[in-house]
Amino acid sequence: MRTYLLLCLLLILVGTSCRSVRKVESGQQALWDVELRINEKKSKNRLGFAVIRQTPAPRKIFGYKPEILDTLLAVRSAQQLQQFAINEGYFQATTRHEVVPLGRKKAKVVYHITSGPRFIISDIEYNFDSPNLRRIEAASSGLRVPQAGRPFRLTELEQERDRITNLYRNQGYFGFPRDRIRVAADTIGRRNTVQLSIYISNPRERQGDSLVIVEPVVNRIGKIVVNPDFRNRNHAFDTILDGSYRVLYESVDSVWIAPRVVTDVLEFSVGQRYREQRIKNSYQHINRLRMFSSTEINFSPMPGDTTGSLLVANVSMIPLPRRSFTAQIEALNTAAQLGTNANITWVNRNVFGGGENLNVRLRGGVESQAIGELATDQFFNTFELSMEASIVFPRFLLPISTRGILPKRMQPRTRLSVSAGRQSRVEFDRILYRAGLGYIWQESLEKTHTVDLVDLNVVQISQLRDDFLENLNFLFGFRNTFISSTRYTYIFNNQLTSKRPVRYYFRGMAEVAGNVLSLMDNALTFPEDSLGAGNILGVSYAQYVKVEGDFRQLWNISPRQSLVWRSFAGYTRAYGNGVDPVFGFQPPFEMRYFAGGSNDIRAFLPYRLGPANNPRASELFNTAPIKFLSSVEYRFPIQNSFRGAFFLDAGNIFYENLRLPDGARVSDIQPDYVLRWENLLSAMALGGGVGLRYDFGFFVVRLDMAYPLYDPSLISGERWVSSDFRFSRIVWNVALGYPF
Known about the structure:
Layout: H1 2-20, E1 30-38, E2 41-43, H2 46-50, H3 71-87, E3 94-101, E4 106-114, E5 120-128, H4 131-138, H5 154-169, E6 181-186, E7 193-200, E8 204-207, E9 210-213, E10 220-227, E11 238-242, E12 245-249, H6 259-263, H7 276-289, E13 292-301, E14 310-319, E15 323-334, E16 337-349, E17 357-367, E18 382-393, E19 413-424, E20 428-442, E21 447-464, H8 466-470, E22 481-493, E23 502-513, H9 515-524, E24 535-536, E25 539-541, E26 544-558, E27 561-574, E28 626-639, E29 642-654, H10 666-669, E30 685-695, E31 700-710, E32 731-736
């Protein structure tokens, strides 16, 4: 049977090969292959192949259109390969190409590069017309790109020109031209070495019939004009002064947005040196307001300035509509659970005239939840409905004003929010209320700090199925609970700002809950429930500490290929009033972790993995206070907007082996649930698979096919399930966006 299949496949390939050359006319040849040889050794140099002008068409079983060999393009490709080698420091390189026939109407082009010796930079000399420019560059000499003793590379010289240009533009030299930086390479009388001379010249100015070298002028900002509604640029304006800023309005009676809103986002002011980075930062700050559709910041010489050093900054903005309404419907098929949800969002911008944005969102969804023993006859047996209102202020809401105290780059914001929702699942039905006050600020474009000063949550359980209770080992997390927490979050993200091939993302979070209520309880003596826990508003209040760390690394192998790695660890521990006299180690359900799902360990269903080596993991609704997760994903292009991926996910959830109020430990009740460092690897689930993604530009649709490779819930010796492949074990994940 296997021989028969191989023979059929061979016949298909041969037939396809024959049909592919039928479209090639007489006297032509189909370009079937391209080969690159460097010093007569076959090479797969990615940059070398990038300069070859003609490559074979992708071969397909159906609809194949051959690429007709163009010998003129082959000649030009050989010339470009020679220039490529010279740019890499092989100044004596030679190239040639040959066309090798491959039978009937097919050919291969082989490009030969004889590199010769690679030239090394012996020394670098910097020459300046201006002593001021010399002093500025010398202070940053540690950042120079080309270095003596390293091979010559033209790309490094281009990077050095960019570095010097940006350096001067951020030191007050507005519009410093890149062409005033010249590079000369001298190899005469040198053995395989090159001396570099970099010249930074002054501008030339015509005086009479002569061109005279003049000292470059340091530019300062002499005037700033801000128009927050550039749609009315042809109207007459009244000017309102906000410090050194002139803000234009149609009249003083039509101030639709407070001047400080549009001036606090500008990192430059009158009297400062021109710095290009401050202009870029200002664009970022304006975009973060989410009030303007477009912005332009232009500079021009200040009229009447005889020194030529002063600039006028004109900031022109076009506002978004005051109110907007959006609706979104999604179809879901996550880990074999079908469903749909809808979001309706109403936005009211500049509510109080101070740049405040009000968002009201209504969200609803239904889902088919397949959970084995707890299944029902209804297809859509789970639904959620919630409503949230939030308002963001572009400043800190504090008893004192922080204007002029905090640097503008911090862009402080305050977020107030309230929400209510109902969640009905097969296992339980509950209502959730939430209110929060948080402060957000930017340390830099890459670093964000958030302090959720007050985060109040009330969870009311209205129904718990008896058979679900029987499958729960620990009940405390499903009690009615009042949570009052304070949270700090730090995010570092240079994936959008860095041009380096390796980029990073890190999120760290620390949260404490119930401490203020505990102090009030000690002073006022709150009423207690039947388990001895202090109550407020008729429910027990939670007390716990929680910490998380989420680290990601993105390595761009090429412009369209990347390797992404993620590692996550989370820990929650109850204490004080959060300690249940029966199961004291259980924090509230919302603060525990689960494993599995489309953004987690994709080869396992959500809530159907762990804790640790739980032998009934696939039957129970599993959560735990400790979680470890690690994933690696290789992403590559397929064709046009289609992308592919190979991935591995590993991790699990665990219980800490704490001592219970009766003196026993968790391991005495459920030994398979506990985190044991010596057996950590044997308790980590492992899954892998392949993914198909389609990039629409503004969002990505993802289909991941995952298969469990190692299942810690099975008995020892049978956990490597990859050796016993079954189609029924494949888990399909359909989702929007990348998993991390």
